[in-house]
Backbone:
DNA sequence: CGGATGATTCGGTGCTCACCGAAATGTTAT
DNA sequence: ATAACATTTCGGTGAGCACCGAATCATCCG
């Protein structure tokens, strides 16, 4: 069918974002749980998600179909497996922001093991491609205090910060950093303070992983600070000891 | 009931953000329409929203109850009226991001007047407290080209940009700018390119309104560029003429 | 006071959709 | 080939919820 400029414009003009359709994807307990699980930045199989969400495999299939069709998830099929992950950093960031705005719901804790696990999650965990939890928040705070980041029209990298990054061996403008915008912060749902996300957050996470300052649990989102990491975080950033290990008490809120 | 430190921590640990509950608020066509309407940054009465969304007043009441209880909307009651608005800038920003991620839905256009209205909306409109549409995107682009903004670890204000702001009479660190973070961009759902949001976007919008570079339609989100504005935008920023009036053709995509 | 107006409560209706189980499909392992 | 496994298709069921209209409540105005 022939379409002239006017018709093409009409077409463009006559569109509106279907917010409800997108929200409907997340409005289901099970689908929301799947998305939160995938916020670890990893790739899961349909079966793993079925067990995690405690629903039948057939139900999971339907949910994944919707989420993929809606553009929230990317999928990759290998043999009889279906691997899914979040579609991209934008998706992850929006989910994080949404989670920060969401009300809180009590979660049952049945055993000491579960309690310890949650404690570890609160201390340090992955948030897609960066560090969240008390450790992530402490990083953002200390970097601000030290003048590596500044709050001027937002959180930005200072000259000192750029220098510090270079000293660490993180190039201040790489291919992955250039196209992805922002020193961003997102509200941490455990500590309710901001932590670093965006390209800078991702770069720091990768760097810390490479140097084995932190290690990631293969099955969960939990991060542990290694002995090397403890030293590095303390010496290079002056992170207080409380931020470096899961403890019974939380650091006092900023004041 | 007495609660020691351990119990308090347990309580905090045993919470998780209820993403599904929040998303459910937006998963309804009518409620989503209400939120999108409120993205104009204004305050609406229940009756106005009922007419806008084309549902019975009783239905609107129920929706508003849910949205207010969920923390998305703030309400203020005066006499027999119920005024509602978005809860805050965070809410608006998250909604914008979500809308940018959402799929597009064709919207019926029944008359020439409606077509013109949509054209105007695409050209320039309010997005909570800043400028969106082709004009908003053009602003962001031109400011970047002119070196007022730079993409280094994200979009930041350059020294030249700060100077330019000062010359305009916008203080580079005001009370409202300091506490609200970020030179932010959000994906425009009409042009699908980023426009300026965050504190800087809000400051620019206010400034342009005060100088009457633009005027806002009292009933819709449509912005019109005045004759003064045309001159100001062109002289101070070098905005191309295409960006200054609604036209039949769109500016070519960047490249 | 009495009438108009904006908003709310409530009961009832219809539709959507999350869920499961059983059977089927396709893939890897023995 | 046969068996074990991961996922999918399909039919049926039950619960949740968006909607309306009619009646009610509260406020403003003459």
Residues:
């Amino acid at each position: 069918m022939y379409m002239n400029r006017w018709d093409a414009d009409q077409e463009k003009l006559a569109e509106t974002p279907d917010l409800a359709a997108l929200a409907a994807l997340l409005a289901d307990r099970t689908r929301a749980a799947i998305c939160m699980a995938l916020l670890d930045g990893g790739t899961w199989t349909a079966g793993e998600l079925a067990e995690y969400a405690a629903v039948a495999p057939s139900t999971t299939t339907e949910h994944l179909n919707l989420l993929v069709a809606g553009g929230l998830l990317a999928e990759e099929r290998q043999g009889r497996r279906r691997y899914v992950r979040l579609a991209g950093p934008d998706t992850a960031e929006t989910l994080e922001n949404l989670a920060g705005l969401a009300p809180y719901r009590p979660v049952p804790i049945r055993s000491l093991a579960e309690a310890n696990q949650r404690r570890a999650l609160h201390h340090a965990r992955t948030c897609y491609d960066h560090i969240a939890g008390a450790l992530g928040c402490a990083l953002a705070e200390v970097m601000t205090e030290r003048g590596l980041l500044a709050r001027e029209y937002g959180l930005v990298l200072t000259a000192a910060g750029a220098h510090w990054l270079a000293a660490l061996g993180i190039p201040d403008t790489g291919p992955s950093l250039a196209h992805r915008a922002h020193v961003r912060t997102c509200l941490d749902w455990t500590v309710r303070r901001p932590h670093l996300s965006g390209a800078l957050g991702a770069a720091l996470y990768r760097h810390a992983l490479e140097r084995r300052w932190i290690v990631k649990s293969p099955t969960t989102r939990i991060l542990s600070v290694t002995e090397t990491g403890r030293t590095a975080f303390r010496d290079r950033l002056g992170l207080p000891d409380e931020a470096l290990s899961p403890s019974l008490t939380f650091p006092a809120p900023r004041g």
User: Anything to note?
Assistant: Residues 18-87 of chain A form a domain with the Arc Repressor Mutant, subunit A fold (CATH 1.10.10.10). The first strand of chain A starts at residue 15 and ends at 17. Chain A touches chain B through 76 residues (CB under 8 Å). Chain A has two domains: 18-87, 112-244.
